[in-house]
Amino acid sequence: MSNLASKLRLPQFKETQWQILAGPVLIMLILAMMILPLPAFLLDMLFTFNIVLSLMILMVAMFTQKTLEFSAFPTVLLFSTLLRLALNIASTRVILLDGHTGAAAAGRVVEAFGHFLVGGNFAIGIIVFAILIIINFMVITKGAGRIAEVGARFVLDGMPGKQMAIDADLNAGLIGEDEAKRRRSDVTQESDFYGSMDGASKFVRGDAIAGLLIMAINIIGGLMIGMLQHDMSFAQAGETYTLLTIGDGLVAQIPALIISTAAGVIVTRVSTEQDVGEQMVSQLMTNRASCCWPPGLSACWVLFRECQTWCFYCLPLRCSALPGGCADANCKRRPSARH
Length: 339
Fold this sequence. Notes:
- The protein has eleven helices and no strands.
- Mean pLDDT is 76; it is low at 324-339.
- It is mainly alpha-helical.
- 74% of the residues lie in helices and 0% in strands.
- The termini are far apart.
């Protein structure tokens, strides 16, 4: 076998890094999920993995100091969208086939999202699902897509100036040939990244539209299958299949909302030596006015009779106890630059 591998010039398994197989294996698994029927326990594992994956992507986006450190985000966004759509297809198959057996037909995760999060009320579930779609589609995705579009335009317009600046530094002897190559590579990767993000935002928008269509198909198809094939009443079929559909939609849209937030964080951040959390805290808490005015203004709420609750009494204390508050020595007025 080793001789055959050497004749065919195939790399040995020990010499092949596992990252090389991650992309093809993931694509094959997604295609298999779209075609093959999956049991309920496997759907539970995949839904949980999807939620954990979205949280991991958000954490990487939050702790990334420079945009190019997560240049694979557009591809990750594509794969995560395909994974959610494949899970929607697999869960739709299970719901329509075995939905008449009960709320646990599509797994415990879908049942938990359909009963625990919305209290088993399918009307509340539809409203919550619609609100998540609106937040994801109209607010986060639309804003992130516009920022990526404008960012790509400005990056492309600024490429000639950056290239000429690199050539000028190289000709002046300020940088070496290797540093010039690295800077040119960074400029090219930055333009490619923002160009990819401009198109990758359409994936999330299409995923939100697909979620609405899948929910409508599941409810209508479940009503027809329940009444025509399983002799269920209209009310019973509507409650059963609607709860399953809402649980399936929520367990898919919550990761979509998290990844959309990660996309917004990536395109709105400014590349510095700090991550997003350090930027927000350091810039919010260094201004004396921003540290001292909120406790005083929040204390005015207790002058209104309707606001005389313990929350408004504790609000000034909480504001003044924030890092950088008036009691903090870091909030001292900076010395004037004028002499």
